[in-house]
């Protein structure tokens, strides 16, 4: 009895999670988004306004330019923005001397015409995007002026709406009306900002024309009206054409010519004081896709045209050839005279700003004022960000940038001519670009070192588990993992961790975390390989004993489950695939069972009547019931956006924490009924096992707790969703709180006195034995029994009669599960709680089929206690299936935030930690529940046997010949069947304690292995597909969910093992006590 | 402690021995026989049988190619796949009868009884009922594995019918309803003649391949290729056909391998 295995488990869990964490650090770039907004004093030319531009004001401004922060100069012109999705830079270049242009060449000839007619009024520039080059991320970048990353921490997951300061909001708050036409992504990001919006969904990637045609229909009307200041039109055809046909197809020529016509008509229709901006949000690769960071994908096109006003020229100090996409935001803000958004990092590019003189200011003063406003805004954001997120940036780098800024802010006071201004602007731009570079380094790039290390270090432990644990026998673990050696391994790991923490810089790792994980993983790998080498003979022997092509169907199932990650359509349909595989696992189990029992039941002649009475048929029916339940769970799945005609999804946008879809009254009633049935059935089961007799604390709790909890859960389901408005929230909360309290109580009781048995006082022994067989099975120690039968009357008093000893292990696990399940039920919404209970029912069926299969195939204690690989895979699949059955999906917008407020609406325990725990419990209720209860897989065989001893007799009686007196042959039958005495139920487990605990450990590590493999596949898929179109929409969220599931399930498995250890310890004490009283 | 471990090791070795034994039993008896002595008649039967099933599937494929549009595979009246497979299975039974004619003289009493009762109404009725029940069972399994509950009944029915034809029907045609049940659920009944046994072994490959193929056919269903042949029963129907083809090819290689082995030993000696 020691805790060595537990520590090994913790060690393994640490290694796997470390690898996953490292990978996620390299793959998911995190930026904390700020919700502050910029404001400014708008200097107006209208004399009636608050701040009027006058010579005095100008003088005051230039007295101290530093103090004049937050100024906006007047609006220069109206703006038309035509976004042509995936308009690559090369598409706009015009080459004269080409006789046969490629499909995408020379199609935008109108741009060239304008450029040649009046070069001062038109600009054609390279529009450099920052990866990831997907439309959503690009739009964020184009409107906030910051570098978008996958997870903007702090942003609202529940809807895609941007809550960071952005140019659209600034325009809207400056009362400049906007009109939008085209891709619906804009209105998802910016709902209710536009005066008029004609938005169309962008899902159907193979539809080249419908969105564009709609825009073309509405555009002329909008161009002729003059009630807007900004018009945005987003065309999708070119992008979709790229995805469908690629840039070299004739369709591309057609789409580009169409765009050419659109631009021509817009230019003809626009008035003199309007600026036209035509831009692509990203480019495309040779195959027409995008998402990555190659030059092909990041080089988009920008074309600017103004009919009457010239653009500022070369003397403004801006780049004439290339425009960073983030520079668009400050430039746009300058043209429109609105504040530059708070989190912008771009610079104003004066090349596309129309040169409209501002009264009382000369040209360089105007430019200086604009540039300096921009610079101040960037510094404010950058230093605020660095201040709030320490350790994000390098300290020396920060110091250098700050010094430079102080120097510049002194210099800006002394600029009185154009030459000085040019010098100043050059230096300023260099400095601001430095800041951008610093940020980009942190936010934009994947970190391949961390990703590859993460992959390697999550694979290594899985590999060693396979070698060392999976290929050794439970009895040998004691030799492999000795307490002392594990202690040393921990010491070495701690030393390696400290080393990594201290010297991570010497190995050019970026963070301490990376160093620590790297060195601990390497040393642990060394330790494990040492173990493997030392026990190689054993491992090799056991490995050789495994049959060739053993478990092949199961392995194929597992392979299919893992392969899901590598295709986006499989990820989208994962719920159905998992249920298909789970059904196949159950069919496989029942097929094996049928094959075995058919051989035994019908020797020569098939009899229908015998078949109808046989246990095999019942089990087959049970498995069909299980599959029907799984099929029923289809109705509980939540669909996702990509599946099409998904009604759940349209409701989930908008207000963050609202209920997705109010279910009907029937759902609530069904949920309550299901909850009640579940608690009643477990209660009946426990009672028939004799575990509800007596008055030990856990028995009392198990007797009354679930009833109370289920009443509360039912009440909560009905009240929380009822349409009656005048119920006080606190009354509903109390119901939830009672259930939480019961779970806590259960945890306390389990750690204090877990056993659910009743030792009958010796005085009453004989009476109860005679009468107590209505439904209770009093399990009697066989040893004692023999003594009882053999010995004389006065020894009778010494016989202890113990209720519930046959299910001493599983009963506690099941009771614990009941409380856990009820907490989850209250957290889940009613529809989802039906799903959880359906999964529990499937689990029960799986357990009973497997239990019976196991003792028909087992030949020794060791094989009997070790579940078959198929059952393990089935349990594993079930745990993950439960995620989907409880109405969850692997998209970030479909997290059930409501769970964070169950029982807490009246302000009890306002901590984010509790909210997080509740949401995690809700989201991953499947993995948590089933992995906590994993030990049932090995104990259930025994409790089944204790409950229905007839099963084994029925399958052996034909071979044993005629009926013999049942009491005497029971043990022999068991001995003959499985090689040991099974009649004592789970007490047998105690007798072979080292094998049993070893198997518990092995089982946990096998689940570790499966989970590790799964998350490894998720990581691998992300690495392979990191340039995929759908990486941020499908693969990355899938990986995030899988990583979280790993972080949650490994501790749950450890918890399950801990529970097992605690029970074992209690049984140990009990048996010792009984033995002592017997001796006395 | 010491003793218990030795007991365990003894038991484990026993288990391994048993496992090996059962493996031997599960293994097709044809190669065991092949090694010991070469039965020319039997090999011929096997090869004809396998080529017959392959020809059936080829015919189905040719038919599908001829029709060009695969969408009709799910309809009962419009598709010839089910009748072709039905004819193929019948031909296989005729083949088994043809080779069985040699053994007519050496039949045991039970085998003779069985043979004489082949065309009695009771047997025929039993066979048809069994097949009908099987079709229903397959349809039910299709539905619980994810086929639409409401609607697509015709498609589900066609798939179930095809599965029945590939798995249960050949045995029923060969042995009648009661016989098929006995073969499925009991150890080898004694009324099965040698020739029927050969056919039964080959049917097993056919059935296994068909089931696995139909099951695995679903793999293309979730893909977003937007092809018309991804519609519900088509991948499963084609999967079942291809699966049974693969099963037959596997059986064929077994037979050929055994024959080649015999041939080589003969040549050497």
TrEMBL record, chain A:
Q: Where in the cell is it found?
A: Endoplasmic reticulum membrane
Superkingdom of source: Eukaryota
One of the entry's Gene Ontology molecular-function terms is: mannose-ethanolamine phosphotransferase activity
- Indicate the segments forming the GPI ethanolamine phosphate transferase 2 C-terminal domain, all copies: 871-1044
GO biological process terms, alphabetically, are: GPI anchor biosynthetic process
Please give the Gene3D superfamilies that the UniProt record associates with this protein.
Answer: Alkaline Phosphatase, subunit A (3.40.720.10)
The record's keywords, sorted A to Z, are: Endoplasmic reticulum, Glycoprotein, GPI-anchor biosynthesis, Membrane, Transferase, Transmembrane, Transmembrane helix
What pathway does the annotation place this protein in? Glycolipid biosynthesis; glycosylphosphatidylinositol-anchor biosynthesis
- Keyword DNA-binding present in the record's keywords: the answer is no
InterPro entries linked to this entry: Alkaline_phosphatase_core_sf, Phosphodiest/P_Trfase, PIG-O_N, PIGG/GPI7_C, PIGO/GPI13
User: Which SUPFAM superfamilies does the entry link to?
Assistant: Alkaline phosphatase-like
**UniProt keyword Endoplasmic reticulum present:** yes
For this protein, the parts annotated as crossing the membrane are 451-469, 487-504, 516-533, 554-571, 577-594, 615-634, 667-686, 734-760, 801-827, 834-853, 865-885, 913-937, 1039-1060
Query: One cellular component GO annotation, for this chain's record?
Result: endoplasmic reticulum membrane
Q: Which family does it belong to?
A: Belongs to the PIGG/PIGN/PIGO family. PIGO subfamily.
Supply the name of the protein. Answer: GPI ethanolamine phosphate transferase 3, catalytic subunit
Q: Which organism is it from?
A: Drosophila ananassae
Q: Which gene holds the coding sequence for this protein?
A: Dana\GF12178
Automatic annotation (TrEMBL), chain B:
Q: What's a single GO BP term from this record?
A: GPI anchor biosynthetic process
**Chain ranges passing through the membrane:** 47-64, 124-151, 157-185, 205-225, 237-260
Q: Please give the GO cellular component terms listed in this UniProt entry.
A: endoplasmic reticulum membrane
Its membrane topology is listed as: Multi-pass membrane protein
Q: InterPro entries annotated for this entry?
A: GPI_biosynthesis_protein_Pig-F
Q: What Pfam families does the entry give?
A: PIG-F (PF06699)
Task: Give the top-rank taxon of the lineage listed in the UniProt record for this protein.
Answer: Eukaryota
Which keywords does UniProt give here? Endoplasmic reticulum, GPI-anchor biosynthesis, Membrane, Transmembrane, Transmembrane helix
Asked if Glycosyltransferase is a keyword of the record, the answer is no
Keyword match Transmembrane: yes
Pathway the protein contributes to: Glycolipid biosynthesis; glycosylphosphatidylinositol-anchor biosynthesis
Q: What is this protein called?
A: Glycosylphosphatidylinositol anchor biosynthesis protein 11
């Amino acid at each position: 009895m020691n805790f060595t295995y537990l520590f090994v488990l913790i060690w393994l869990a640490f290694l796997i999670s470390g690898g996953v964490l490292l990978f996620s650090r390299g793959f998911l770039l995190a930026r904390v988004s700020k919700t502050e907004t910029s404001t400014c004093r708008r200097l107006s030319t209208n004399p009636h306004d608050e701040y009027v531009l006058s010579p005095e004001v100008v003088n005051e401004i230039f007295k101290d330019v530093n103090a004049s922060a937050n100024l906006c100069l007047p609006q220069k012109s109206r703006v038309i923005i035509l976004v042509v999705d995936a308009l690559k830079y090369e598409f706009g270049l015009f080459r004269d001397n080409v006789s046969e242009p490629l499909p995408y060449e020379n199609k935008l000839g109108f741009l060239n015409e304008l450029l040649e007619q009046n070069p001062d009024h038109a600009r054609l520039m390279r529009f450099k995007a920052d990866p990831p080059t997907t439309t959503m991320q690009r739009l964020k970048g184009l409107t906030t002026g910051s570098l978008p990353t996958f997870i903007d921490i702090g942003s609202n997951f529940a809807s895609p709406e941007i809550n960071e300061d952005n140019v659209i909001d600034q325009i809207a708050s400056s009362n400049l009306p906007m009109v939008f036409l085209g891709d619906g992504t804009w209105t998802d990001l910016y709902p209710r900002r536009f005066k008029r919006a004609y938005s169309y969904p962008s899902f159907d990637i193979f539809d080249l024309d419908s969105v564009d045609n709609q825009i073309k229909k509405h555009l002329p009307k909008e161009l002729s009206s003059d009630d807007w200041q900004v018009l945005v039109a987003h065309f999708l055809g070119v992008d979709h054409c790229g995805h469908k046909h690629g840039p070299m197809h004739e369709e591309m020529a057609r789409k580009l010519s169409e765009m050419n016509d659109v631009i021509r008509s817009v230019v003809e229709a626009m008035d003199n004081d309007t600026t036209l901006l035509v831009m692509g949000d990203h480019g495309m690769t040779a195959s027409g896709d995008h998402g990555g960071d190659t030059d092909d994908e990041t080089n988009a096109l920008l074309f600017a045209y103004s009919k009457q006003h010239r653009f500022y020229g070369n003397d403004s100090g801006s780049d004439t050839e290339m425009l960073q996409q983030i520079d668009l935001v400050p430039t746009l803000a300058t043209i429109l005279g609105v504040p530059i958004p708070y989190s912008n990092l771009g610079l104003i590019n004066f090349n596309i700003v129309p040169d409209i003189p501002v009264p009382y200011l000369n040209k360089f003063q105007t430019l200086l004022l604009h540039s300096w406003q921009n610079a101040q805004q960037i510094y404010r954001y950058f230093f605020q960000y660095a201040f709030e997120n320490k350790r994000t940036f390098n300290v020396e780098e920060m110091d250098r940038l700050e010094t430079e800024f102080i120097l510049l802010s002194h210099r800006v006071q002394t600029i009185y001519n154009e030459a000085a201004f040019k010098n100043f602007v050059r230096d300023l731009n260099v400095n601001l670009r430095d800041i951008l570079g610093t940020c980009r380094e942190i936010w934009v790039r994947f970190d391949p070192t961390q990703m590859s290390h993460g992959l390697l270090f999550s694979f290594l432990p899985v590999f060693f588990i396979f070698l060392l644990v999976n290929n050794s026998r439970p009895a040998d673990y004691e030799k492999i993992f000795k307490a002392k050696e594990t202690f040393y391994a921990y010491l070495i790991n701690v030393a390696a961790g400290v080393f990594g923490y201290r010297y991570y810089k010497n190995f050019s790792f970026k963070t301490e975390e990376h160093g620590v994980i790297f060195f601990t993983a390497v040393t642990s790998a060394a330790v494990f390989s040492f173990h493997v080498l030392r026990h190689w003979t054993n491992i090799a022997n056991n490995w050789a004993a495994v049959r060739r092509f053993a478990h092949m169907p199961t392995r194929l199932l597992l392979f299919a489950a893992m392969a899901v990650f590598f295709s986006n359509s499989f990820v989208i349909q994962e719920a159905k695939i998992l249920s298909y595989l789970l059904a196949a696992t159950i069919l496989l189990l029942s097929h094996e069972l049928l094959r075995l029992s058919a051989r035994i039941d019908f020797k020569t002649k098939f009899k229908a009547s015998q078949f109808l009475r046989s246990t095999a048929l019942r089990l087959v029916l049970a498995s069909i019931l299980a599959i029907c339940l799984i099929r029923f769970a289809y109705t509980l799945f939540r669909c996702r956006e990509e599946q099409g005609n998904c009604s759940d999804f349209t409701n989930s946008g908008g207000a963050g924490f609202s209920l997705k879809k109010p279910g009907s009254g029937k759902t609530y009633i069904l949920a309550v009924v299901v909850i009640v049935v579940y608690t009643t059935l477990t209660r009946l089961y426990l009672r028939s096992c004799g575990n509800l007799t007596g008055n030990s604390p856990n028995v009392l709790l198990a007797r009354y707790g679930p009833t109370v909890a289920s009443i509360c859960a039912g009440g909560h389901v009905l009240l929380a969703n009822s349409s009656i408005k005048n119920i006080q929230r606190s009354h509903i909360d109390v119901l939830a709180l009672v259930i939480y309290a019961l779970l806590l109580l259960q945890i306390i009781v389990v750690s204090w006195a877990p056993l659910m048995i009743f030792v009958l006082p010796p005085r009453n022994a004989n009476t109860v034995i005679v009468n107590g067989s209505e439904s209770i099975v009093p399990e009697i120690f066989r040893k004692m029994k023999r003594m009882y039968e053999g010995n004389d009357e006065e020894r009778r008093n010494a016989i202890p009669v113990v209720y519930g000893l046959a299910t001493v292990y599983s009963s506690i696990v099941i009771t614990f599960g009941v409380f856990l399940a009820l907490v989850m039920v209250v957290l889940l919404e009613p529809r989802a709680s039906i799903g959880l209970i359906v999964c529990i029912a499937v689990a029960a069926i799986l357990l009973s089929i497997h239990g019976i299969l196991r003792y028909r195939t087992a030949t020794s204690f060791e094989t009997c206690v070790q579940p078959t690989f198929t059952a393990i895979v089935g349990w594993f699949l079930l745990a993950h299936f439960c995620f989907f059955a409880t109405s969850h999906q692997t998209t970030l917008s479909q997290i059930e935030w409501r769970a964070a407020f169950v029982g807490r609406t009246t302000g009890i325990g306002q901590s984010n930690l509790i909210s997080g725990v509740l949401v995690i419990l809700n989201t991953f209720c499947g993995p948590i529940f089933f992995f906590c209860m994993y030990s049932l897989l090995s104990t259930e065989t025994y409790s089944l046997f204790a409950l229905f001893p007839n099963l084994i007799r029925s399958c052996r009686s034909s071979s044993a010949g005629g009926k013999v007196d049942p009491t005497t042959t029971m043990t022999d039958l068991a001995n003959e069947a499985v090689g040991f005495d099974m009649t004592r139920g789970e007490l047998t487990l105690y007798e072979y304690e080292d094998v049993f605990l070893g198997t518990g450990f092995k089982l946990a590590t096998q689940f570790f292995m499966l989970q590790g493999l799964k998350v490894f596949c998720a990581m691998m898929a992300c690495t392979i597909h990191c340039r995929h179109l759908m990486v941020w929409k499908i693969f990355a969220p899938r990986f995030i969910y899988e990583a979280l599931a790993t972080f949650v399930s490994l501790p749950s498995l450890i918890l399950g093992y801990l529970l097992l250890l605690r029970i074992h310890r209690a049984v140990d004490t009990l048996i010792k006590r009984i033995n002592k009283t017997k001796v006395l | 402690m010491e003793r218990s471990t030795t007991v365990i090791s003894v038991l484990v070795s026993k288990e391994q021995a048993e496992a090996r034994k059962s493996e031997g039993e599960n293994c097709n008896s044809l190669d065991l026989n092949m090694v010991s002595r070469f039965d020319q008649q039997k090999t011929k039967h096997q090869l004809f049988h396998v080529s017959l099933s392959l020809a059936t599937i080829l015919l189905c494929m040719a038919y599908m190619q001829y029709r060009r549009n695969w969408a009709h595979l799910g309809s009962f009246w419009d598709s010839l796949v089910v009748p072709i497979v039905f004819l193929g299975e019948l031909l296989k039974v005729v083949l088994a009868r043809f080779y069985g004619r040699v053994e007519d003289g050496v039949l045991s009493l039970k085998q003779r009884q069985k043979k004489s009762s082949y065309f009695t109404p009771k047997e025929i009725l039993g066979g048809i009922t069994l097949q009908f029940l099987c079709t229903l069972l397959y349809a039910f399994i299709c539905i619980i594995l994810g086929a639409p509950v409401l609607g697509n009944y015709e498609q589900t029915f066609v798939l179930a019918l095809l599965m029945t034809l590939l798995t249960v029907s050949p045995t029923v045609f060969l042995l009648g309803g009661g016989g098929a049940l006995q073969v499925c659920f009991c150890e080898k009944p004694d009324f099965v003649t040698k020739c029927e046994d050969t056919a039964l072994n080959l049917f097993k490959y056919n059935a296994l391949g068909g089931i696995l193929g139909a099951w695995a056919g679903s793999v293309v269903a979730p893909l977003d290729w937007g092809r018309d042949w991804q519609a519900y029963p088509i991948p499963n129907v084609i999967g079942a056909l291809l699966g049974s083809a693969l099963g037959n090819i596997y059986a064929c290689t077994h037979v050929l391998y055994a024959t080649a082995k015999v041939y080589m030993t003969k040549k050497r000696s």
